[in-house]
Design goal:
- This protein folds into 3 domains: about 80 residues, no CATH class; about 110 residues, Rossmann fold (3-Layer(aba) Sandwich), CATH 3.40.50; about 160 residues, Rossmann fold (3-Layer(aba) Sandwich).
- By secondary structure, the chain is of the alpha/beta class.
- Helix 10 links the parallel strand 16 and strand 17.
- It contains 11 helices and 17 strands.
Length: about 375
């Protein structure tokens, strides 16, 4: 575990003075990390922001791309040097029970990655309870991901990506999950992922659902269509939407296109853009909760929609970050309502036949309904 302090030498050389405090935001490094982190020259009462060794390493590597990071230093906070930090947990053998904090913040972790962690965290909390430990855990994640843990009975506290030391010391142990899937399996004590309940479930606050139910007309078939992806290789042409709309003209189409600030149709006859009414990530969940079908090239949207139990047609192209035998191999267990295109074909998609393939999935979903 590392503490964030001011780099006085760099501040003196660049600013000619040492300010009482400086603010750090990691949003440039990861758009989900929206916490405003205040670092004081003379911190009091445990006002030292802390982060995992992995996040400290990643941020250190980002100093060239993000010059603002040069104003800060990452200082090891070890128990051996008297810091009152929780003990880093490697396994549970011969260790007295205590409260556990999972450090999940990671610059390479997106929305889909966080949702994929939910079954693992749930199983980990259950395992702790079976060992006589507190069966609720704490998590520290990107601040924008907080709504993911809404109504998760196995999580009793959610901390931002860089919690303060006086918040962390209320825990006895910390576990850093990083991106090491084999370590997650080791801590669970399982050989096969199918030994746990793998289905990803996302809950949305009732007031958010009610808000979007009032904003979106409830009559007819509502289809959410998203052709944009953060990965340009996954972004689709508008023409595919036009083909789908021609095949199902009776449906009403919606999208959430943050690149377009106007409320209304993206283009004449195009899907109705709802993103200007979104305030937080949880609003996207609320929008998806009102849809009958979700079609998307954005994998984060696909994970969220499928986690809400919505029939989700997701087009996989470009690069897919695997999870070593967990995702995407076990997607039918993780997301029973997901209809992937390209996932089982090693991302090889015939774009000429894509509209017809999507149409077949829509027909199957409507027939099943």
């Amino acid at each position: 575990m590392y503490g964030i302090t001011l780099d006085t030498t760099h501040l003196l050389m660049t600013l000619g003075q040492i300010p009482d405090s400086a603010t750090l935001c990691l949003e440039d490094a990861n758009p989900y990390m929206t916490q405003q982190i205040t670092v004081y020259f003379t911190p009091q009462n445990g006002q030292i922001p802390v982060l995992s060794w992995q996040l400290a390493y990643q941020l250190d590597q980002h100093r060239k791309q993000h010059p603002g990071l040069r104003y800060f230093r990452f200082v090891p906070l070890s128990r051996e040097e008297g810091w009152p930090v929780p003990r880093k947990l490697e396994d549970f053998d011969n260790v007295p029970p205590g409260r556990v904090l999972f450090l999940l913040a990671n610059l390479r972790r997106g929305l889909g990655d966080m949702l994929l962690l939910l079954p693992i965290l749930k199983a980990q909390a259950k395992t702790l309870g079976q060992r006589g430990w507190p069966s609720q855990i704490g998590v520290s994640s990107a601040k924008r991901f907080e709504p993911i843990f809404f109504q998760c009975p196995f999580v009793d506290r959610v901390l931002p990506e860089c919690p303060l030391l006086n918040e962390v010391i209320s825990f006895d142990y910390v576990i850093e999950y990083g991106m090491q899937i084999y370590r997650m399996k080791h801590l669970l004590g399982i050989r096969d992922w199918r030994e746990i309940d793998l289905q990803v479930r996302l809950q949305v606050p009732s007031e958010i659902i009610e808000y979007w139910r009032n904003e979106i007309p409830q009559d007819g078939i509502k289809i959410f269509y998203n052709w944009m992806s953060s990965d340009s290789q996954r972004t689709l042409s508008y023409d595919y939407f036009k083909a789908i709309k021609a095949a199902f003209p009776e449906a009403t189409y919606y999208t959430s296109h943050r690149g377009e600030a106007m409320l209304g149709e993206i283009f004449p006859g195009g899907p109705f853009n709802l993103s200007p009414k979104e305030r937080f990530l949880v609003d996207l969940f609320g929008i998806l909760s009102q849809m009958d079908i979700v079609i998307t090239a954005n994998t984060g949207v696909a994970h969220a929609a499928a986690a809400l139990g919505k029939p989700t047609i997701v087009i996989f192209t470009g690069v897919l970050n695997g999870w070593e035998g967990y995702w995407p191999q076990l997607y039918p267990y993780l997301y029973p309502t997901m209809h992937p295109i390209g996932l089982k074909e090693d991302l090889q998609i015939d774009l000429n036949s894509l509209p017809r393939t999507i149409q077949q999935h829509i027909e199957a979903i409507l027939a099943a309904a």
